[in-house]
Amino acid sequence: MAPFSGQTQGGSAPDEPQRRIPELEEALRRAEDSSRNKSAFIANLSHEIRTPLNSIIGVANLFQGTRLDLEQKKFVEMLSTSARDLHRLVEELLDLSLIETGRLTLQSEPFPVRSNCSRTIRPLAVSIQERRLSLELQVDPAVPEYLRGDSARMSQILRNMVTNAIAFTPKGTIRVRVFLEEETESSANLHVTAGHPDGGTGAEKRRDTDYSNMERKDFSASFQGAGMGLLIARGIAEAMGGKLWTEFSGSGDRIIHFRASLGKIPSGEALPGKEEKSGKEIPAAAAPLPAEISILVVDDNRFNRSLARTILRKMGGPGWRVSLAESGSEALQLMEEQHFDLVFMDVQMPEMDGLECTRLVRKKETGRDRRSVIIAMTAYAMEGDRRMCLDAGMDDYIAKPVEAEELRTVISRNLA
Fold first, then answer.
1. Which CATH fold would you assign to the domain 109-264?
2. So where are the chain's domains?
3. What CATH number should be reported for the domain whose range is 27-100?
4. pLDDT digits over 233-260, tens only?
5. Are 146 and 223 in contact, with CB atoms under 8 Å apart?
6. pLDDT tens for residues 122-158?
7. DSSP one-letter string for 274-337
8. CATH for the stretch 293-415
9. Which of 81, 111, 137, 344 has the highest Cβ tally under 10 A?
């Protein structure tokens, strides 16, 4: 048989892989466009939902600070809880989008491991009490007091682990364990578990799963959000270079496992929340708020403008003068007429958005003695939105829906 010559009857045939390269490149381009369009759609949907949510949650908080009878308190609590549940679903949609597109970014900052775990699970006490369960937190003494990583994402993973454990524990105790598997000079490998102490043990054969094949129908109606939350937690764990999986038995007992490698803190590095010399903890809200201040709230939504003014006036008292603007152009005019110490700037507005308005303000301030602190107060909450605002000249960023304590913190941070 003659050796293969790369030719067929009727002449030479084109190289098949080379011929398909343009088709593959076009398919890849379409897939990337589809992914970007989906992410943009989810971001815009989030923005549209957050805007009315900001008013709903804000007004519910204001009602809770007034004199209400028992029935009214119950109604307001139902309103507030439902709005927060909707807000959580919006956050999860955003996280899923970031994970699917590989755009999830992680922070790397020192944080206190034990207190971070305690603060995370404390708000779940209501759910635990309603199901007549008990909760134990055990942090191994070998775990360093401070580690470096993304404390918010760590809390998110732990919160979803415990929520899932609540859903699958009919009675008894849910135990959260944090222990050190191994460590080097620069890193510490933590292993976190949550579930019934006897989960995954006994006569039944144990099964291990990384959660990817678990079906939503497994989850009880009272914890419908646990499925998506744990799926997101797994994606975050993998972005950390770690792993999240579930170990369970045929009897229904199960334990959720999370493993991650975190950075160790070099000796001598200043730690957050502690005074470097004395080592005494400093409360986050210790810095006093200014007694007198002029504030401008810029937002094209009249309900959000009114809500922000009410919250700020209650927070600061008569010494806080609050003005309102419904557009970037109106804000520019007011800032030409008088100086504002603090400006809360919405980002998406018709005609002139908050980014363009901020750039023009910073340009006009060139050479002036006084400068306004501008804080983005926006419904945009995707990764990169904060950087976009800071690059435009803003000093800080707060995402809607805005809580009064968040406002207090951001004001104290920028004006104290």
1. Heat Shock Protein 90 (3.30.565)
2. 27-100, 109-264, 293-415
3. 1.10.287.130
4. 999 999 998 999 988 765 556 789 999 9
5. no
6. 888 878 888 889 999 999 999 999 999 999 899 999 9
7. B-TTT--B--TT-SPPPSSEEEEEE-S-HHHHHHHHHHHHHHHGGGEEEEEESSHHHHHHHHHH
8. 3.40.50.2300
9. 344
